[in-house]
Structures are given as structure tokens and as C-alpha cells.
Amino acid sequence: xxxxxxxxxxxxxxxxxxxxxxxxxxxxxxxxxxxxxxxxxxxxxxxxxxxxxxxxxxxxxxxxxxxxxxxxxxxxxxxxxxxxxxxxxxxxxxxxxxxxxxxxxxxxxxxxxxxxxxxxxxxxxxxxxxxxxxxxxxxxxxxxxxxxxxxxxxxxxxxxxxxxxxxxxxxxxxxxxxxxxxxxxxxxxxxxxxxxxxxxxxxxxxxxxxxxxxxxxxxxxxxxxxxxxxxxxxxxxxxxxxxxxxxxxxxx
Length: 252
What we know:
The protein is α/β, with parallel strands linked by helices. The chain has one domain: Rossmann fold, CATH 3.40.50. The protein contains 10 helices and 9 strands. A 6-stranded parallel beta sheet has the order 2-1-3-4-8-9, with helices on both faces. A 3-stranded antiparallel beta sheet has the order 5-6-7, with no helix packed on it. Helix 3 crosses helix 4.
């Protein structure tokens, strides 16, 4: 009798373990954090591709008023997810996910043509370590916010988008508080969680070699895509493919 009970218990435990493992491997939530001088609308095509593949995609519309406020905005969206989540960041969004990635629901991080800082680093210092090809950032008259010169925006940010799309992106860009570029990052989540990085080889906003160096330092799995800084919009199929593969691997 005792042997039968133990056998039944062992079977139940094994069944539960298998079910738990299957559940742990299932990451269906994707949260995307856009970069500075942009908003989440540029991610529409990539989001639709991922949705058709069965993912639940949410794009954070962070305020770009401070790094702390942007992390809080991301955490609010992560709180709403119903299970394990893959966190994706583009450009400055990489600074945000590096800290927001500590959220208990985040299983992995994907950096898309993004800054991937270590503890104590800020965006300005990182960008200056290997300057980008473009220098078209301007200050607002009050000196508190930064933006990309609309005339230079298409070439420097989105050279491989149709001209009308790039022009509209320049007109609809979100100004970023100057302070966010000097704010230092705390302990990076990529030290404890799996990470992936997409290098945009034609990037004029972030030096592609800097993207490679940051990814190498973090031990991220790297994919290179021939595209501008707006790789998420100009190559949505390829970017979505990397994200989908990362979601599968992060759950294993």
C-alpha cells in the first residue's frame, strides 16, 4: 500500500514537473521600449508580424522626461503582463531595459541598435567613446530638451525608409530631456539574464562598432542586419525573426 502511494506521488510530481517545464518554456509576451527622438508607432509592422506568430505585443510609450520615469513607465507595462516576458529596447530604450530588465517577469533582453550600458555608464559617455557618423542633435531654446534636426533626420536616422515615412518620423519625433543623456545606469540586468543584440550595420546614430563592443561585453547573442538606425521599421521581418527566436531560447 505504501509503495503504491509513493508511486502515485512520484508520478504526480513528475507530471507536474513536465507541465511546469512546458509552461516555463512558453514566452508569449513581448514588451518593446522605443528610443529617443521617436515613439512606438514605428514598431507597428514588427508588432503585427509578431502578433501573427502568436505573441502578445505591447509597446511602451515612455515620456522621455528622465531615465527613472521611463523605467517606471516600462515597469507599469511589465506589471500588466500575464506571464514570462521578453523585453526589447531600441537605441536609448536599451538604457531603459538594462534596469527595467530586473523585473520578475522578464526572462530575456533584446537590444535593437541600442545602447547596452554597464553599471555607472551614461548614454553621453558611451556615445562619445566611439562617435557615430551623424551629429545632428539640437537643443530646444530653453536648453532642456534635445531633438534631431528634421532636415538631417531622414539621412541620419532612417536612410532606408521611404522618403515620406522618414519625413513624417522627423516631424513626429518625441523630444528627449537633456538630463537622460547624462544619467548613470545601475546594475545591468544583462548580467543575470539572457540577452540578444541586433547590430544595424549602416547605423549613423550609433556607431555599429560600439554596438558590437557593448554586445560582446554583455555576452549577448548577436545578429547583424544591413540597415539604418531605424532597422525595426525598415527590416521588420528580420527584427521580428530575431525577437521570436530569442523568446523561444529565453524560455528554454
